[in-house]
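the two lines:
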Amino acid sequence: MATSKSDLVAGTLALMILKTLETVGSLHGYAIARRIEQISDSQIALNQGTIYPALLRLEQEGWISPKWGESETGRRVKFYAITRTGKKQLRTEQGDWERAAGIVAKFVTLSPTKA
Amino acid sequence: MRRFAARLFSRFRRSRLERELADEVAAHLEFAAADHRAKGLSDEDARAAALRQFGGVTQTTEAFRDGYGFPALERAWRDLLFAWRLLRRQPLFAASAIVTVALGVGANTAVVSVLQTVLLNPLGLRHADRVVAVRTQFVKLQLLHGETSGVEFREVQSLTDAFSAASAMEGRAWTWRAKDEASRLVGQAVTPDFFRVFGEYPASGRFFTPEDNEFCVVLSDELWHTRFGADPSAVGRTMTLDNSSFLIVGIASPGFRFPTNAQLWTPLILEPGRLLDSERGRNRSLSVFARRKDGVSEAQAGERVRRYVDGLMLDDAAHSGEFSRNGYGIEITNFGRYIAGDLRRPLLLLWGAASIVLLTGCANIAGLLLARSSGRRREMAIRIAVGAASSQIVRQLLLESLLIGALGGVAGLVVAAVALSLLTHLTFPDSGILTLVSLDSRLLLYGFGLALASGLLFGMAPAIQLVRQSQSAQLNHSRNRWSRDLFVAAEVCGAFVLIVMTTLLLRSLWAIVKIDPGFDSQHVTTAFFLKPENDPGFFDRLQSTLQATPGVQSAALANPVPFAESGVIAGFAVKNRQEQGALGNAEGFQITPGYFQTLRIPFLRGRDLASSDTATSPPVCVIDSRLAAQFFPGQDPVGQEIAMFNGWARVVGVVAAVRRTSLESDPRPAIYYSFAQIPFFPWAAVLVRSNNSAETIIRATVHDTNPAVPVYDVRSLEERLGATLGIRRAMIMLLSAFGAISLLLAIVGLYGVTAQVVSERTREIGLRIALGARPTQILLLLMRHGLRSGVFGLLLGLGAVVYTQRWLAGMLYNVSALDPITLGVVMSGVLMLVLMAVWLPTRRAAGIEPQQVLRHD
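prediction for all of em together
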């Protein structure tokens, strides 16, 4: 069942971006969007434009830092890299997710009790 | 937090950020298109696919923009600028709206300032909310709010479960000799806990302790500044009061001025004799104040005292019963109410009136805004079509109203400041308190907040209309009108009530002014002085010199002076009467011969006090006709003996009764004694009848007779009489101003509503005329509407007057609050104005050409 776009993406876009940058290194905006689509097996088809406001927010919070560089085709474009505080934030959010998922899992795996 | 700072900074880099975004978006689309091309799509298809994948570029840019700066604030700021430009384009509307708010807010703030100083936070004393005033009453003798004797003070002090501190205060005046100049200082003698009761600390030095003798002094901050030049070394110096040396031990803080005229305080040492039970009801000259213990409410404190007094009365009934028979009691009053006294009801009335003006103004502005917004329907429709949420439009409308409110508020504060500065022109007894009224920052905040709240209030009218319109496709005319009609009716009601009250007060004043006080108050100058020590012949010398002065028709000395202060009220006994103890209460006067001639009070029987009545001759007195009628009916009082002060005195004459405290209250019976025989009081007054003001003559003569005697409070008797009417006059002036403004606003509102009805129904009118309706019929049809609201408002107003009748009656004299003549006259007057307001706009309607109207589509 495809996950509803707005539910999943809005809450976790920041997490996904940070994780992507941590794993892969510094990327430019298009590359980040493509990567997220790939990893989710194209189950998340986000409007790629939504990346940019999210990147702005992450930059304001100090979790990523931009740098100008050149793409493979030689075009000048902004690259983003995760910062140290960004890595810390990633740990925290990851931990929150796993805890939340664990609690929900406990409920979901409950079998109906005989009355 | 970091985000907030980042938002702030990125605001300044806006253009660079936007450029970079545009660049990134362009790059993104390039890469995406390249990828699609690699998959085999044509150039065009690749670009389209890239755009589709991206989502909306405009949306992205807008979402991006929301990420920096403070978009909500910036939107609000833009709306505000727009509102400001809109106002400037409609100066007439803007001016009338702003002036209306200014008047309403200004009046309200001014009244609340006075209310604050007088009632709510009396005298600006910070910790006075826990203070209560303790007074005695003899209900059966109609002696209420009386001062106490030493007993009550001691007893209140002992009620430690209700009060944490208690203090007694007694008025004092001294002659201060400084550099050969004699001046009079006024103050209070207070027990050591006095300042603790009010929660005060000295600005420097200390306050009194139980170990102090009576020769210490605490200066008021004002005296310290005016007569000691704020000299920091004043504490520790001495000053000569009444020829004794007093040590200055401390200076009170600048905020403490109680009583308002107190220049200094000295310790009050009560002799043990004054505290005995037998002293109850005697020597009632103490003002007692107590501080409620923490956690004890006012009601609880009152209850505690009541229980105590009940216990006393049970005991008393078992013995002489003197006190329980006369309805003795000890009453506890909240300090604010004590200070406000007679001012309380007029002030509350004024505040109600000012609120009516403000609400009326808001209703009018709401109506104006509604009329204005129907002209902006196109503008709103366009906004909604372009994508504005109705919440944004509502926000903008409210912002416009808040702007009007804010501008009106600033103007209103100016109005309030001007109004308060005019306060000082009012004089009436106890008007000294008005000098303490000022616009402090809290009141400025209140006024501005009131203006903003009004802005929100009348701003809701167009906002609600907009929300309703956007929810239903058709324009709901009828519902619109219903609320406007209600506004108009309420305005008429408010104006009616105010005008009725003003008229009633005016009639009361008129009735009072016509009252004959019983003496001739014209051409009499009065001046007070302090009796000198060691000068027994002073009074005689002064009077004989004055009488011999050219220009003086007659002169006398007296204490007290009518309409200046009241005399000692005490019980008296008549010799050879069956009843024991005091028969009744009378007011005692001390005079010199010539007093009755000076005031032209007619003699009824017997003789005047004469110079032959001296300290060594038998004590005599003169009584007034009230006493004679009440206690010697059918008898000749001359020759009877009465005891009030100091033993039995023989009645030698009867004079006509005169009014002494106020023109409208019946005076108590009076007994007049000769100064020579009862030399009690430390001060007295000179009364001189002359064609012109005798002030210079009095000052010169007193100085010549004894240069150490200070003269103060020189005024004509007429002025003193007029001062008692001061509050009434002020009330009438203010209420009539408020009433006039309300009426004007109501009539304007009614006119506006009717005009709007006419313009909305123009086509219908044209149709009716074409179908044969006569002009009168059209007129009646249109006027019916406005008339309905007007009459409804009048009926509402009538109901309001009936409802508040009893409360209002306390301020009226000789006029009933439901006086039919007044009600009838005011009602017909307002009705006529209503008719005119409704008739004027409809006049044109009758002359409408059907062809013009029906063609105009």
